[in-house]
């Protein structure tokens, strides 16, 4: 391994962890996701460093790995009360209910929304990261937003 890989990990590691946390909703899973992605990146670093965007490459690994884990697990995490998560990003504080609803979306829809609204990436870049067309990105975002709207309306009706 060379120093450029170490510099990349030191410089972008916390941002990758935040990205992983938003994808998974769990600090331990986020740490595992980052570790797995960096291990894979380390194996191909000499090729990846020659490309324009090593961070985009590792984010693609993370998104695809997260979807693979979700498909394998296909289980719900039922908890009466969420434990103290230790790390929290200030951008996540505002609306816990919305983040909980985001966690109920299928992994690809959640990844599209996270990349679009949290990471502020254009549809073309999201498509490249997820390995889908831009039309798929738009349709997944539309479906996800519709599900969130329905959930929010139902929650508001329950409050009344």
Report on the structure:
By secondary structure, the chain is an all-alpha fold. The chain has two domains: 1-74, Rna Polymerase Sigma Factor, Chain: A; 95-160, Winged helix-like DNA-binding domain superfamily/Winged helix DNA-binding domain (Arc Repressor Mutant, subunit A), CATH 1.10.10.10. The chain is 74% helix and 0% strand. It has seven helices and no strands. Helix 1 packs across helix 3, helix 2 packs across helix 3 (54-73) and helix 6 (123-130) crosses helix 7 (134-159).
Structure summary:
By secondary structure, the chain is mainly alpha-helical. The chain is built from 7 helices and no strands.
């Amino acid at each position: 391994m060379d120093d450029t890989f170490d510099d990349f990990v030191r410089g972008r590691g916390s941002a990758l962890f935040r990205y992983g946390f938003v994808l998974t909703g769990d600090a331990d899973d986020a740490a595992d996701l980052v570790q797995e992605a960096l291990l894979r990146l380390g194996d191909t670093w000499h090729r990846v460093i020659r490309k324009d965007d090593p961070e985009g490459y590792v984010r693609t690994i993370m998104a695809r790995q997260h979807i693979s884990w979700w498909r394998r697990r296909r289980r719900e995490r039922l908890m009466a009360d969420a434990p103290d998560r230790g790390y929290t990003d200030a951008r996540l504080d505002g609306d816990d209910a919305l983040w909980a609803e985001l966690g109920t979306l299928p992994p690809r829809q959640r990844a599209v929304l996270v990349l679009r609204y949290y990471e502020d990436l254009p549809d073309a870049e999201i498509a490249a990261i997820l390995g889908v067309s831009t039309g798929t990105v738009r349709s997944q975002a539309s479906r996800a937003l519709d599900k969130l709207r329905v959930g929010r309306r139902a929650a508001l009706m329950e409050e009344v």
